[in-house]
Write a structure and sequence with these properties.
The chain is mainly β. It is 4% helix and 41% strand. A hairpin with a 5-residue loop joins strand 1 and strand 2 (18-23). The protein is globular and about 50 Å long. The protein binds 6-O-phosphono-alpha-D-glucopyranose (G6P). 6-O-phosphono-alpha-D-glucopyranose binds at residues 64, 84-85, 168, 192, 213, 245, 247, 270, 272.
């Protein structure tokens, strides 16, 4: 990173849990909890929240927080014996005081935090592999939110291990019925609501009128989520993460969740940058990287135009 880093502020969040507040000089901000390494807030320079967090979200271990961006590892989904979405989202992470050099030195971000997760003896009982997980969360110069994950296989005497991963990303939207996703049309997907059967997306642009839980395969590295009512578009860019999971619980499932308001499904949409379908295999000494960048642009946005001019507000 070039230039002087803006000091990281560590303060108390909900229930006294430690959080880091990132502030960028133009007024963008983000909050990252050490619990779960979870980004719980990302605001633009007008103080408008761009991530959804349920009013009923439970910030209390061992429950995972429903909202923001959850780090799902070493499993995403409910495959195998491990708990759904893995365990690092409900563990405490630490600030990494000696992070490795950034992947690309060109980044001009000065507001960032490096976190590290190392498994405990208890964790090793459920997933007996020697690893560390490094997470960098940064705010870019135009307010974009950048997450970089690195998983390292540490034991030279151990066999390779496999994992799946996701940035489970809850976007705040005006009204789910006004939302359109571009970038996933014509893609194949596995439908979690139909025993993971394989289908091909028929809609020209994806819109919403009922529960959805689809794993889109081999997706492009840029996906747009267009919010007509708020006139803003989220642009999600990803690297090393071929799948994109789109989830909204809709009314019935929302009612069944204790930490989710009955009507809150109308104001959220999860679009998860993921590697769910083909597990990643890591050999001793190897490192895996997966990146996601979220930005917001004004929605005078033409269909198919995935690199619109950036503006500093979602208005
Ligand atoms: O409640 P969680 O474990 O956070 O999972 C919430 C949702 O996450 C993903 O989007 C999955 O595809 C869904 O099947 C799951 O219901």
């Amino acid at each position: 990173m070039s230039g002087e880093k803006i000091p990281v502020q560590l303060c108390k969040g909900v229930n006294g849990l430690d959080k880091v507040v990132l502030r960028e000089p133009k007024g963008f901000s983000a909050e990252v909890y050490l619990y779960g390494g979870q980004v719980t807030s990302w605001k633009n320079n007008f103080g408008e929240e761009m991530l959804f967090a349920s009013n009923k979200a439970i910030f209390k271990p061992p429950k995972a927080v429903h909202g923001g961006i959850s780090i799902c590892f070493p499993r995403f989904g409910s495959h195998g014996s491990l708990e759904q979405q893995g365990f690092v989202r409900n563990r405490f992470w630490s600030i990494d005081t000696d992070p490795p050099p950034p992947i690309r030195k060109s980044s001009s971000s000065k507001a960032y935090v490096d976190l590290i997760f190392k498994p405990s003896v208890e964790d090793a009982k459920v997933w007996p592999h020697s690893f560390e997980f490094l997470l960098k969360v940064a705010l870019g110069p135009t307010g974009e939110l950048l997450l970089t994950s690195r998983v390292r296989h540490l034991n030279p005497n151990e066999k390779p291990f496999s994992f799946t991963f996701a940035y489970q990303t809850y976007l705040s939207v005006s009204d789910i019925s006004e939302i359109r996703i571009e970038g996933l049309e014509t893609r194949n997907y596995l439908d979690n609501l139909r025993n993971k059967e394989l289908f091909t997306e028929q809609q020209n642009a994806i819109t919403f009128e009922s529960e959805i839980d689809k794993i889109y395969l081999s997706t492009p590295n840029k996906i747009a989520v267009i919010d007509h009512k708020r006139r803003r578009t989220f642009v999600l860019k990803k690297d090393g993460l071929p799948d994109a999971v789109v989830w909204n619980p809709w009314d019935k499932k929302a009612k069944a969740m204790v930490d989710f308001g009955n009507d809150e499904y109308q104001r959220m949409l999860c679009v998860d940058a993921a590697n769910e379908v083909a597990p990643i295999k890591l050999r001793p000494g190897e490192e895996w990287r997966g990146k996601m960048e979220l930005s917001v642009v004004h929605s005078s946005y033409n269909s198919g135009q995935l690199v619109p001019q950036k503006v500093s507000t979602g208005r």
